[in-house]
């Protein structure tokens, strides 16, 4: 059995063929898609966060709105770039969104990926401390964020407050109990997967991973990703955390069920991994897309080692094709693929 949800980047574009022309379209349709896939029996609605781009950029209003409109589906991100975040303000927003959703938030965070502008986090007012780089800064923001989510008081109360204070040190409010255990780290390498485990975060294995397989260069994406997942699980066990962790992977999966599916995805020819660079020093592997008739798709996915190793599968959706079509894609996986693979 797997948790199956969608992952939307929330692109909008005033271009021919796009059903998502504006930021308002993207936000409102994201909410409607979450409602639609909950009705279909899916398990999660997740959103990617990018700044300085025509994509979803401020997650917490959206997460709160989805939480208010749905009843049981998980509501999450994959991922928020911690280089841009004030961890205390983020803890307030996350606590509020989680309370609105009734404790359904699954918050994916990470050190970030290449963005649309150079050092965009500087425009948000953040600078790495001396001797640190931007990745170090993201991890320091994360450390503070995780510490605050524990709900322990740390701030000295004013002896003459506007309103009466409870005794002792004060914490950030609102606090949502249990949210700390629903934080995920977006890891793109073996070392960052192990770091996530050490710090007690669930794992979101990235859509691009460092080409660091123990088997050497040329190892397929799904095999390298499965190695990262195993390294995470081993590190989790070694750390002695009392609960079982969760692991997610993201895939583009399109069952070809009708002529519209074949028109959009039947001739894409993206059945091979791609190699690129996260930065000038780090080579990365980008996973293939899956688009085929259901029987063929089932056999292809049966051979994906990382999908087999994960308990959560996020279906990356082409959100500009609109709510109805994306709900159709999710339904196709739930009805025509998942049962044969034992996911349902």
UniProtKB/TrEMBL annotation:
What's in the GO CC field?
cytosol
Residue span(s) of domain Luciferase-like: 6-207
Supply the Gene3D superfamilies for this chain: Luciferase-like domain (3.20.20.30)
Query: From the UniProt record, which GO molecular function terms apply?
Result: oxidoreductase activity, acting on paired donors, with incorporation or reduction of molecular oxygen
One Pfam short name? Bac_luciferase
Please give the name of this protein: LLM class flavin-dependent oxidoreductase
